[in-house]
Amino acid sequence: MSKKDEFIFGFKKAIPITMGYIPMGIGYAALAIKAGLTPLQTVGFSILVYAGAGEIIAVTMLLNGATAFAIILTNFVVNLRYFVMNVCVYNKVQKTSPLLNALSCHLTTDESFAMFSLMDESSIWTYVGLSLTSWLSWILGAAIGVFVLDLLPVIVTNSFNISLYALFVAILIPNVKKNYRIGLLVIITGIMNIILQTIIGNWSIIVSTLLGALIGVYLINDAYFLTDDGGIK
């Protein structure tokens, strides 16, 4: 496929993510406005930061009177997992460049990483199409949120936040059907995260992710990741 075709392929793959990001963005906007951010700041935060859980954590901490240093430090720790995700993504893609990697790494999220990791495609342009579309849909959700919040009941805007969990389920179920060990690995990683939260706090996300990846090396059969011609998915 040409670069354009690869990009369009990634765009199409991002459609399920956009269905979760738009309502989630609306829910984030509700919290941001409540925390005192202006509409411009609310949307700008999504453009510049773009970390769903990180943004929600930040505006929640702001609402509770946390200092800027505490908010930045917390987000730094929570979002360290993106270093791991980007390393995995750029180890998978072919025919890329440091400049393209640097420009696209801002677009990595849990959902785009999970979707791309489970795809056969390994083109950087497919990943850009997937992650860029997801980013724009999150921004669109935040923009919609700042305009429609006054028109919707509070209970409706708050309910948008569960869309992210539904999105994870939608991404995982088809692949769990192909290999039940993926579902088992998700459960193990989730349990480790819950346990580690009581011991190391926010670092639990990074540590449980790394431990889950390590367990996955031995738990999931390598044949699942091999294509018919011997390549790696």
Topology:
Elements: H1 3-13, H2 15-34, H3 39-48, H4 52-63, H5 68-78, H6 81-92, H7 98-104, H8 110-117, H9 124-148, H10 154-159, H11 163-178, H12 180-200, H13 203-219
Helix pairs in contact: 1-9, 2-4, 2-9, 2-11, 3-9, 4-5, 6-8, 11-12, 12-13
Overall description:
The protein has 233 residues and is an all-alpha fold. It contains 13 helices and no strands. The radius of gyration is 18 Å and the shape is globular.
Q: Radius of gyration, Cα only, in angstroms? A: 18 Å
pLDDT below 50 for ≥5 consecutive residues: which ranges?
A: 223-233
The proportion of strand residues reads under 5%
Question: SSE string, helix = H, strand = E?
Answer: HHHHHHHHHHHHH
Anisotropy-based shape:
globular
Largest sheet: none
Number of helical segments with 4 or more residues: 13
Number of strands: 0
Let me know the average pLDDT. 80
Helix content: over 70%
> Which structural class matches the secondary elements?
mainly alpha
Distance between the termini: 17 Å
List keywords for this structure.
233 residues, mainly alpha, 76% helix, globular, disordered C terminus
Task: Give a summary of the structure in a few sentences.
This protein is mainly alpha-helical and 233 residues long. The protein has 13 helices and no strands. Helix 2 packs parallel to helix 4, helix 2 packs antiparallel against helix 11 and helix 6 packs parallel to helix 8.
